[in-house]
Amino acid sequence: QVQLVESGGGLVQAGGSLRLSCAASGRTFSTYAMGWFRQVSGKEREFVAAISVSGGNTYYADSVKGRFTISRDNAKNTVYLQMNSLNPEDTAVYYCAADRAFASTWTLTGYREVWGQGTLVTVSS
Would you say the C-alpha torsion 43, 19, 114, 56 has a positive or negative sign? Predict the structure, then answer.
């Protein structure tokens, strides 16, 4: 079973950028689609982005499309979320996730096989 450890969250001003990292343990990392969800207190966890096992296909929520970029480096067992042009509305706890389900299906359900612990991103005006 893959295990996920997130880093890179913090405080940033509106318009700024952050890069989140999710380091995975286990030699089966390259068999998992990877992605990110985010959650605001009192709200449901929402899909942000997903990437296929090879990195060849990416998927984004409309709210982040054009601003966020998901990528993965299977040699380093790491997935990234580059967040540019951040808005206060992006403030949330961001969770890394892994699933053997195809990344193309991730928008259909919030269930994931493996979750990271979450990292807080705060965007101030």
Answer: positive
Q: Which residue has the tokens 């269930």?
A: 111
Side by side, which strands form the sheet with 78-83? 3-7, 18-25, 78-83, 68-73
pLDDT tens, the chain, 125 aa long: 789 999 999 999 999 999 999 999 987 788 999 999 999 999 999 999 999 999 999 999 999 999 999 999 999 999 999 999 999 999 999 999 999 999 999 999 899 999 999 999 999 99
For the CA atoms of 37, 43, 44, 49, the dihedral, rounded to the nearest 10 degrees, stands at: -20
